[in-house]
């Protein structure tokens, strides 16, 4: 086996290793999923800000593999409105409600 063949095998092995290292797992997103989730988070935050009845600054948004988690201390009547608004956004697979009503 000459140098060129060994070098090509090395490159193929390295490329395979790089692909496996970037593969998503149940606890970790792949690169594409991370980008998709970032876009979804941006859409959700923009929709919350655009709604004049919600205080978007009180609602924290996190997205993992298309599931959006909403949290924060908000007025009780804002919770169903925020959940309904987020469920209609393209790309959102599920919404997890961790918002707590203010007393």
TrEMBL record:
Keywords: Signal. This is BON domain-containing protein. It holds the Pfam family BON. The keyword Endoplasmic reticulum does not apply. Residues 1-23 form the signal peptide. Residues 36-103 form the BON domain. It comes from the Bacteria.
């Amino acid at each position: 086996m000459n140098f060129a063949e060994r070098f090509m095998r090395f490159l193929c092995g390295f490329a395979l290793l790089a692909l496996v290292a970037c593969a998503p797992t149940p606890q970790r997103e792949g690169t594409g999923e991370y980008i998709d989730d970032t876009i979804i988070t941006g859409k959700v935050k923009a929709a919350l800000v655009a709604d004049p009845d919600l205080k978007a600054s009180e609602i924290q948004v996190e997205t993992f593999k298309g599931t959006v988690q909403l949290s924060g201390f908000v007025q009780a009547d804002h919770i169903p409105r925020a959940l309904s608004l987020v469920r209609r956004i393209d790309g959102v697979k599920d919404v997890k409600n961790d918002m707590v009503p203010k007393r």
